[in-house]
Amino acid sequence: MSAVKTLTVGEDETGIRLDRWFKRHYPDLPHVILEKLLRTGQVRVDGGRAMAADRLEAGQAIRVPPTAHVAPPKKKIAKPGMPVSDKDAAFIRGLILHQDPDVIVLNKPHGLAAQGGSGIERSVDGLLDALSLGKSHRPRLVHRLDRDTTGVLVIARTPSAAAALSEAFRARETRKIYWALVNGVPRPHRGKVALSLAKEGGHGKHGRDERMVPLAAGDDREDAKRAVTHYAVLDAAASACAWVALMPITGRTHQLRAHMAAIGCPIVGDFKYGGSESRLSGEVPKMLHLHARSIQIKHPKGGILEVVAPLPPHMKKSWALFGFSADDTKDPFIDFERGNKRK
Known about the structure:
Blueprint: E1 5-8, H1 18-25, H2 31-39, E2 44-45, E3 48-49, E4 61-64, H3 86-93, E5 96-99, E6 103-108, E7 140-141, E8 150-156, H4 159-170, E9 174-183, E10 190-194, E11 197-200, E12 211-214, E13 228-237, E14 241-248, H5 255-262, H6 271-274, E15 290-298, E16 304-308, H7 313-322, H8 334-342
């Protein structure tokens, strides 16, 4: 019979949640069993009771009871950790924009899902083993992008980096700027969209075509979530379409897509929210024109990490068609924010 074990938290596990620590060391232990072990005091940290969300420090002693050592039969399902082919490894490594001992930032292409799911054969998460690059821990996604949205995607290389980066996203201590091509020209050219969003169910077994619905002022649906987006028109092709910079203040599902459609300027190629209005005539590609252009985030080891992602091929083509500058690096929201603070 297994005995009680006492394990020590490693230096690179500082800041990780206790339940995440168990997921890494005892991946077959169901969360419901862990919660029971915590509730009954069988799992302890430095001799004291603990909760799943507690953050760990290097050197702490974790009491692991025999129950945690008994793994249930493994299901034969595909999951992260499966071998990555040489071709896929070269593909995912070719997306790297930034790499240091704690963080990797990718330029995610159009059509590549961030995580797996029904009908998804290849995803960033499924290829992360190819980005271990000498580290003993598997890299971890700390945020997501929609499958057809391109641009900066942040990956943590250690548990402590994952904890720090995840906290930065939770606390909204990040500055993310997106570029989009929209049908029509927003008026005024700079502004804010503050429309709460609620989930509208899809159809079928997996809820396909699920959408986020902007709510009118005063609509107090229980499932509504506050959502705020700043926008700025950077250039326009007469009144036909506009190059818009978007800065989400909140991080709701499909927020930018739902907000732009709500103000009558849907993102080009976003048929889910814009329908036929998201289509431009001529040679403009019929693909989603939404790109996570840049991110500023606190680096786990101090300072600010800033990464800019070049446009994907289909958006480069559209920018060339309309004469927009794909190399623009200015932040359109600095002066706008200062002006709001003076009011």
